[in-house]
Write a structure and sequence with these properties.
Strand content: 15-25%
Helix content: 25-40%
Structural class: alpha/beta
Shape: globular
Distance between the termini: 29 Å
Strand order of the largest sheet: 18-17-16-15-9-14-13-10-19
Number of strands: 19
Length: 390
């Protein structure tokens, strides 16, 4: 690594795709720039890791506007990815582009000897995702994949409950994710139009099943089988220019996952659902000793000893307010932005070689689950999920 001062260990990061919503908000502003604002990643020995972003993309004017807005040097902008990757001063390549462009760019970065950190899915198919993992391993570089939901406060609280034995034997997991994405005619859509065109790499299975893979694997057990039903509920949408287009990608998926150890998970994912819950994603975990409902930030529990004893009687109104019988799990710590937290862990992995498990093989497992989920829906059958190895 280059050193600009004795107290700083500089890591220059080529950031490709930061003009997009996720790349800009979560990765550039709330992660890399936030790390710089706090003084770097403190290593505890008087030195810090200091990230230096190089903004890469196709629209030079947009990149320069970002650089000027955030006080970055004019030379921290490039529309020439090949030139940036050829620069020996660049240590790490980050990708937040559209899915179709990601695999080829990561291949170039691996060939250039850069460490890799990337959004997911890492490729459009399992073969490509596995090949990236193999290439990275053979090149001897460090590589990581964004798995941000593991660092959400709600799921960190849920993991604390699991580690503390709160649930007893975990029986099942039920997840609800989604919200109404406007069609784009009378209100602008909250997501880019390519998300709804399969030919452009869109679809909720490709987008969300990689998330469900690592959440289930990390908290409850490896996914051993998947049975999914996907559909396109909204068949016509309007793009950013106001032009109507046929929605060819799935916008809802209803999945059942069998996990190692016997836990059954059911997760509904939809961009065509109106929210009637506290958060945009919630997971209910039921166990022999207790249950919990975890969202993005909050987590509520009900222990076996305080579980009510309702009786089904459709002829009488319910007299109990069931939601009031749950307790909030306290924070007990300060939760930072999940994207920033994982960036800090990966930077420590690059500089100090600290252990890091969320690599390109983990990314390939997410692509595998999405591929099998789509195949399950197309063929109307449950699909076994083989364990991936390089």
């Amino acid at each position: 690594m280059a050193h600009s001062a004795a107290e700083r260990r500089i890591v220059r990061i080529a950031m490709n795709g930061v003009t997009g919503r996720m790349g800009y908000r979560q990765h550039l502003v709330r992660s890399i720039l936030a790390i710089r604002e706090q003084g770097g990643v403190d290593l505890g020995d008087g030195t810090v890791i200091w990230p230096e972003p190089v903004l890469v993309g196709r629209r030079e004017h947009a990149l320069r506007a970002l650089a000027e807005r955030h006080g970055l040097e004019p030379d921290a902008v490039s529309t020439d990815l090949d030139a940036v990757l050829a620069d020996d001063g660049v240590d790490l390549y980050f990708d937040a582009q559209v899915t179709l462009a990601r695999e080829a760019a990561i291949r170039k970065a691996i060939a250039a000897g850069k460490h890799i950190y990337t959004e997911k899915p890492t490729a459009t198919g399992l073969d490509g995702a596995l090949e990236l993992a193999r290439l990275a391993q053979d090149a001897g570089i460090k590589h990581g994949v964004v798995q941000d939901k593991l660092f959400l406060p709600g799921l960190l609280k849920l993991k604390r409950l699991i580690d503390g034995g709160f649930f007893g034997e975990i029986l099942s997991v039920r997840g609800e994710f989604g919200y109404w994405v406007f069609e784009g005619d009378w209100q602008d859509a909250q997501r880019p139009s390519w998300n709804y065109r399969s030919e452009d790499g869109g679809g909720i299975v490709v987008d969300m099943f990689p998330h469900w893979d690592y959440v289930l694997d990390e908290l409850f057990g490896r996914v051993e089988s998947v049975q999914a039903l996907t559909t396109t509920h909204i068949r016509q949408r309007w793009d950013e220019s106001g032009n109507a287009y046929p929605a060819t990608a799935d916008d809802a998926a209803y999945g059942i996952f069998e996990l190692a150890g016997g836990v059954i998970a059911q997760i509904n994912s939809s961009w065509s659902v109106r929210v009637n819950r506290d958060e945009l994603v919630e997971f209910q975990v039921d166990g022999t000793e207790g249950s919990a409902v975890a969202g993005l930030r909050n987590c509520r529990v009900q222990h076996r000893s305080t579980t009510p004893k309702p009786v089904w009687n459709p002829d009488l109104p319910a007299t109990e307010v069931f939601r009031d019988q749950w307790q909030d799990v306290p924070d007990n710590t300060v939760f930072d932005n999940g994207f920033k937290t994982q960036w800090e862990l990966f930077l420590r992995h690059v500089v100090l070689d600290e252990p890091y498990t969320w690599d390109l093989l983990a990314g390939a497992r997410g692509v595998q689950l999405a591929e099998l989920g789509l195949k399950s829906s197309a063929e109307g059958r449950r699909m076994a999920v083989p364990e991936l190895k390089l």
